Hints:
Elements lengths: L3 E2 L1 H6 L7 E4 L2 E4 L11 H6 L6 H5 L4 H5 L5 E5 L36 H28 L5 H9 L2 H4 L24 H11 L5 H6 L2 H13 L3 H12 L5 E4 L15 E4 L5 E11 L7 E8 L2 E8 L4 E5 L11 E11 L3 E2 L5 H7 L1 H29 L1 E2 L2 E2 L4 H29 L3 H7 L1 H21 L5 H9 L10 H14 L7
Keywords: FAD, Flavoprotein, Heme, Iron, Metal-binding, Oxidoreductase
Family: Belongs to the cytochrome b5 family. Belongs to the acyl-CoA dehydrogenase family.
Organism: Apiospora aurea
Amino acid sequence: MAKTFSRDEVAKHNTEEEVWFVIDSKVYDVSDFLDAHPGGEAVLRQVAGTDATAAFYNLHRQEVLEKYEDLCIGTVQGEKPSVITMKPGDLSQVPYAEPLWLTPAFKSPYYNDSHRRLQKAMRIFTDTYITPEAQAREADGKYISQELIDRMSKAGILHMRLGPGKHLHGVDLLGGAVKGEEFDYFHDLIMGQEGCRSNARGFQDGNMAGMVIGLPCVMNYMKDEKCKQAIMNEVFSGKKKICLAITEAFAGSDVAGLRTTAVKTPDGKHYIVNGTKKWITNGVFSDYFVTGVKTDKGLSVLLIPRGEGIETKLIKTSYSTTAGTTYITYDNVKVPVENLLGEENKGIYVILSNFNHERWTMSCGTIRGMRTVVEECLKWAHQRIVFGKRLIDQPVIRQKLAKMIALTESHQSWLETITYQMCNMPYKEQSKHLGGPIGLLKMSATRAAHEIADESSGMGRVIEMFHRTYKFDAILGGAEEVLGDLGVRQAMAKMPKAVL
């Protein structure tokens, strides 16, 4: 049975040898922690023998306290802790911390019971397995563990991250939370947003992002069915890793400017590939490279297995080495012609085919990141005392929060509107009609993230991470200016000439 202490008893433990205090009706003995305290011994001695609740929460979040539960020796007699502690899978009770469809008082026409089951199951999985590893990898810079990859594969998470399709049929998806045959783009949206809640932007990309943007090219364009199935099985099982290698030092959004070449051998059985690729996500630990190359009359795409002539080198970035961002060199790499994806000299269609889903997925993550920042800022404004008042009691702070909430909610609504079109539009029609709207959504979302970063303030890693990494999404998958131009050009292509 847990021990209880009176407040008078706690007050006596304010000596050179003993330091006790109370936080949220719990009694902590930090006598042996004084030298280890990151803020120094003096800070703890200032509150010795007192109720340190206000002082603690004016500087720290609840998660910090939870790390030191072993220092808690009991509770105050006749009192119970009042601070809400979250368990894996719990929904946040902070206003606007969850999308409206997960808020009890609100309804949505887009989501059904299968969506809610999947959301619950994925949040429990993320809180239990992904977040602890994500934070550990952000700290040490190492790559994702095979243990987590195997666990995600077994749960069907790797399969679900590629969106709806036959590859999900018959697969056990998070213990039956949803059937593969009923999986739609709203399920896909849930997977994208729940998977980003770990607030570890580098790990977010390091967590098999190369598979999400690379494997669809194999699934949709590899002609040899037996070879295609073998590669899909290898990647979905987690035994092999794959990445998309398009960008070069000379060609980012300008895909047509690629300089890596693929020349056929005289017998026509192989391509010889030479060139370099830069900023390739997951390339350091990948076994397959879906590579954009320049052939005799245009652009082509080859699936290149890691082997002789391929060198990968880690690029250190401002978010995290755990993403495995890579510089790749191809030196006379011999590739069978059977590894051509799609048609020779028509590789632009292979590359463009997955851009919509890639950019939509990135929008899901950006908007979820914005919401996480809103939650953190609301918590911080609620608990931080300045000039004798909580921050939330200051009108100027409420105006900042209002702007952040409005930007987040409006982009979530826009995202769901486009997602509904994806669910009700054949894939070929999506390519025709949604490239512009998705491009505009991503452009606007990353602009909104910039504004939210400017307005946000809070403690610790969440705000720091967002400030340091939100700009990546403004470039990856197509720069803001390029996507904005795409959206307008696609709209103008449908503009009737008679409209004056």
